[in-house]
Amino acid sequence: MDDTAETKRVPSWYWVLGIVLLLWGFAGIFAFYSQLTTPYEKMVAEMGKLAADCIKGMPGWLWWVYGIAVWSGTLGSVALLARRNWAQPLYLVSLIAVLVQFGHSFLVAKIQDVMGWGAAIFPAIIILIAAFELWFAGRAKTRGWLC
Predict the structure, then answer these.
(1) What is the structure's pLDDT at 1?
(2) Looking at the predicted structure, is the pLDDT value of residue 70 above 90?
């Protein structure tokens, strides 16, 4: 019998990583929803005026980009766990959206001028994870784990 992606066994760590990436995606959706729906006064109380002003100042189109980033990344993780090839293009869309989102934040809005370069640490982690997700989906596809 041929070893196809549907019959080829994947290592147990694949499932653990897939679940961790799915939980990361859920955390992104939660952050997106929270930032989108939390009243400004509550944001100021929870994170300070500078951070709340940066979020409040996001243009409408950037909220769409943010949503695309978190939803496509999360759906990519679902596809990864379902062992489907469409994980890779979903992760690519997510990475592009993340780069647009943080590109705007640092190159156009210049939040580093307001909050300092320390504000770049978490976005850098997000970009690295998005790049890792894309790389891993490609690797899984190459190894025949996705169909």
Answers:
(1) 42
(2) yes
